[in-house]
């Protein structure tokens, strides 16, 4: 992937046949109404519209409701859906709780800002709904644990929306790493080149009549309305997200967790550059993670490795027999000075995805957890939360992986969770 290509360009391509996905025969037919999954979409910004388009393309899915706190987003998405599905009847809501009250809805997708992910999912589990939820999994570390508890208690299904997980390239990288072809991996370098811009120092404005700002904030601390804090650029504020790092960690670290399953995290040390203006998430970030027998090093600039600078995002696995560098679509293996893109002797053992959304639908019907299930997503997401805490406190932190607590650091442990605003503490 070139430096000019980012995750949003990729997800536009993640239809059912992109990137070598295997298309299941069931997709070609038209499912009977009784076999269809009745889905509602909550959060209708850019990614929410992708959710709507992806699921609208699946014959086994019937979209029955849309929800957003912004009336403009809600109306625009409804119009797009009606253009895709002439004659469709879909209900619209400004409050997601009305969707959860409906017994005829089987599942929801969640593409709200990060600070709403956990509460909506947990409430949906309690209401008997399955959930396809966008990454990052949750706003803070403890929320992921809370989500898992409610999902298991209510026997629900969850898929995290890290769509790139379904790509053939990641599946092949996992097979090669697990085969031992590059030996025991001792270091993985991850990077995402920063492409963000300063937001300046904008001032408070009147809330648009079409926006329910109080509900948009929900569990987050109250603040007066500033447009730059809302919608897409929300992610550059620590009250709602964690900047580009939180946006992309799950995408590229996913291939590491799928292939190596890092265990025994011990130390986290983050340093970074702050924005000059209103945004307070890190503008650039370097994080060193020390696991049992493994180091994972995240940087905002490519490492000094041939070819890395041409990749806007990437992973570089260092083993005792060779190396492997990959991004979403490509891979380059080097063993004994020989460079190759594949190893024919490594068999295909990792079942290919039918498509990330189809995987969710199949899992819901079979009542089995999908590939990016909640237990997996929680493990994958946790280091991201801990890296942000180290950045905020400006110091190295020691982690007890068994207890899921920082060692001897009350200030750091306090940041593992956040008490929602009283009126929006719904779970």
TrEMBL record:
Keywords: Oxidoreductase
UniProt organism field: Dyadobacter fanqingshengii
Residue ranges occupied by any Gfo/Idh/MocA-like oxidoreductase N-terminal domain in the UniProt entry: 37-161
Boundaries of every Gfo/Idh/MocA-like oxidoreductase bacterial type C-terminal domain copy: 202-425
Protein name as it appears in the record: Gfo/Idh/MocA family oxidoreductase
InterPro entries: Gfo/Idh/MocA-like_OxRdtase_N (IPR000683), Gfo/Idh/MocA_oxidrdct_glycsds (IPR050463), Gfo/Idh/MocA_OxRdtase_bact_C (IPR043906), NAD(P)-bd_dom_sf (IPR036291), TAT_signal (IPR006311)
Gene3D superfamilies: Dihydrodipicolinate Reductase, domain 2 (3.30.360.10), NAD(P)-binding Rossmann-like Domain (3.40.50.720)
PANTHER family to which the protein is assigned, alphabetical: BCDNA.GH03377
UniProt keyword annotation of DNA-binding present: no
A Pfam family this chain is assigned to: GFO_IDH_MocA
GO function terms (MF aspect): nucleotide binding; oxidoreductase activity
